Amino acid sequence: MVVKSLRLVNFRSYCDATVRFGPGLNIVVGANASGKTNLLEAAWFALRGNSPRTRREEKLITWGESFSRVELEVDDDAAGAQTVDVGFAPGRGKRVRWSGLELESIEELRGRSQVFVFVPESLLLVKGSPARRRAHLDAFASALDPQYAAAARDMQAVLRQRNAQLGAVKQGGDPGALDPWDVQFARAAVELGRRRRDLVGELRERFAAAASALAPAGERFTLLLVAQLESVQYNEAALLDELRRRRPGEVGRGLSLFGPHRDDLRFLEVGAAPQSSGGDGRERPPELEGEPPAPSAEGPAAVVASGPACGPVELPRGGRDLRLFGSQGEQRAAVLALLLAEQQLAASRTGEQGALFLDDVMSELDDARRRLLVAMLATAGQAIITTTNRHYFTAEELASANVIDLPLEGSLAAGRVAPPPDAAGPAPPAIDAL
Question: Does residue 126 contact residue 334 with C-beta atoms inside 8 Å?
Answer without folding.
Answer: yes
